[in-house]
Specification:
Elements lengths: L2 H17 L14 H20 L2 E7 L3 H7 L5 E6 L3 E3 L1 E4 L7 E11 L12 H4 L3 E12 L5 H4 L1 H6 L4 E6 L15 E6 L2 E7 L7 H13 L10 E6 L4 E2 L5 E6 L3 E7 L1
Helix pairs in contact: 1-2
Length: 263
């Protein structure tokens, strides 16, 4: 993509996310590769920060579990960024009308205890563990902002942070090393009825394998991760689309619960 095309596409994404109009990039402005998609993401996120969403404070990784790869028809992980003004802690109440189609996902998230630099790559599950300061339960809030996400293409979805619309973070477990993250079971409940469950092993075999994937992917673009940032590692349960009045909570063994209510 030319610089002019990236700028034009980024402006469309940023403006339509703020206005809640459907995102459907013209064919000539759609990135043709994931590399172009991440370049588009970087510029559109800069615009969104300026439009009031605040600084990037966290990251999400989509399609790290078989259930989500099957749900979206996308076979490999994709990353996005999360803005400060879209983060809640433990409980959140959101207006249904503030989204085009609001959904929620059951996830394990981590908080970084130190910076991760591109020079340290390549990363493995074993080498990345030392950068983790805490583990927590989390709800990733997603929004289907697209005219038809199945025809828009993965690079364009990457350009728009791959559905992310915010998150709810649980209490951090700083003694996380005592936990077998792969064995932890999580479940989603909607209006007190279980809507799905899964285990940490569904996330690329181990949740921290997803963190290593993100660190390696960003290092190839000359980017690192910062101390204090959080990372959502992938949903254990397929996305649940919510309607007004729904009360959703997720529970993850040893990490507690996080709740979301839609008005």
């Amino acid at each position: 993509m030319s610089d002019a095309s990236v700028t034009q596409a980024a402006r469309i994404i940023a403006e339509r996310r703020i206005s809640r109009e459907a995102i459907d990039l013209p064919a000539e402005l759609r990135p043709a590769s994931e590399t172009d998609g991440y370049a588009l993401q970087g510029l559109s996120n800069h615009m969104l920060s300026d439009k009031g969403l605040g600084a990037v404070v966290g990251h999400k990784i989509g399609c790290t579990t078989p259930v989500m790869q099957a749900f979206l028809g996308i076979p490999s992980p994709c990353a996005g960024e999360i803005f400060a003004k879209t983060v809640a802690h433990e409980r959140a109440r959101l207006a249904h009308g503030a989204f085009r189609r609001i959904g929620a996902e059951c996830e394990i998230a981590i908080e970084l205890a130190r910076d991760i630099t591109p020079e340290e790559a390549p990363f493995t599950l074993g080498t990345i563990a030392g950068a983790v300061g805490a583990v927590m339960a989390g709800i990733e809030i997603v929004d289907d902002r697209y005219a038809d996400y199945r025809t828009l293409g993965v690079p364009s979805l990457i350009g728009d942070n791959f559905f992310n619309a915010g998150c709810v973070l649980g209490r951090p477990a700083r003694d996380w090393q005592r936990l077998d993250l792969a064995a932890l079971k999580g479940r989603t409940l909607i209006n007190d009825e279980e809507a799905g469950s899964g285990t940490g092993a569904m996330v690329l075999g181990h949740p921290l394998a997803a963190l290593a994937w993100l660190a390696n992917a960003r290092s190839r673009r000359g980017l690192g991760l910062k101390r204090g940032e959080f990372v959502f590692l992938g949903s254990l349960v397929e996305t649940k689309w919510l309607k007004p009045g729904d009360k959703l909570r997720i529970e993850i063994e040893e990490l507690g619960e996080v709740a979301l209510e839609v008005e």
